[in-house]
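## retry 2 of 3
previous attempt timed out at serialization; input unchanged, resubmitting
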Amino acid sequence: MYNEIPNYGLRAYALFFTRHGIKEAFTQADLDWIVGESMKKKIFSVLVNNGWIKKVTHNTYQCITPEIIIKGLLEFKVQNIIKKATKLYAFTGLSAVEIWSDYVYMQRGREKSPYYIKILKKDMKYWKGFFNKYKIPNYVNTGATIGEFVILIPVQAIISEEKEGIYVETRKETEKIARGNSFYTYPYNYMRKKYGTAAA
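## retry succeeded, writing output
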């Protein structure tokens, strides 16, 4: 997984890449006399944990190809990351249509990839912290940015079903959403055919 990094990490990566490219290994000693010991450890931790460099041996590292990193910044992460969550949630709206229709309907591309997720109001602080930890842009009720982002929809109660390891608004409710918009006729018909009966 590749994530955005702070400016100090970007500068350190630029130094390592300029000096060593992607094939030559280096050590933390590259930063001796430049930053203090604690900052040096922080920089290497940030670069390794966010996928910009890799550990080769117990004390040597190599740079990851910049092209791989740049493409990786736009990879889809939310559906894997959310499996680590410990609070209630449910993909809703167009995200639920996408999931229940087995992705025959896709609302996303690398340039814009929104996820609509119901959460309990009381858990708002948890969810903001959860997505911030993984550097996933997140907004409450509305918002947008380049790439992948989450729209958190706070509610008092959540009713969901599990599908392929994630929690989604019920199929019945999702079918109602799809049926109510002519743009989603194809995923609606897909769900009706696959699951047998349409929403009442």
